[in-house]
């Protein structure tokens, strides 16, 4: 979910997977795959940046780095050595 701001200033969480396209007409309008349209204060660039950051955070959680895999392996070996 990415946080956006409605024109009245209220925060709104949007499921980024449902965004079909974003337009500046002149206000930024998100069109969802359901056909619903949401008008937000953020620019198209901000919507893009927040969506990419959200997707990157998902990928970081899904595929740990080599360092964290090494730490987990080392901890496993230490625990096995104590048994």
- SSE run: EEEEEHH
List segments where confidence is low: pLDDT < 50 over at least 5 consecutive residues: none
Oligomer: single chain
Biggest sheet details:
3 strands, antiparallel
**Order of strands, widest sheet:** 3-4-5
Alpha carbon gyration radius? 20 Å
Q: What attributes characterize this protein structure?
A:
single chain; 83 residues; alpha+beta; 3-stranded antiparallel beta sheet; two-stranded antiparallel ribbon; 43% helix; Flagellar FlbD family protein; cell projection
Account of the protein in words:
The protein has 83 residues and is of the alpha+beta class. The chain has one domain. It is built from two helices and five strands; from the N terminus they run βββββαα. A hairpin with a 5-residue loop joins strand 1 and strand 2. The protein is rod-shaped, with a radius of gyration of 20 Å. InterPro entries: SwrD-like (IPR009384). Keywords: Cell projection, Cilium, Flagellum.
Please write out the topology.
Layout: E1 2-5, E2 11-14, E3 19-24, E4 28-32, E5 37-40, H1 44-62, H2 66-82
Antiparallel strand pairs: 1-2, 3-4, 4-5
Give the gist of this structure.
With 83 residues, the chain is an alpha+beta fold. The chain has two helices and five strands.
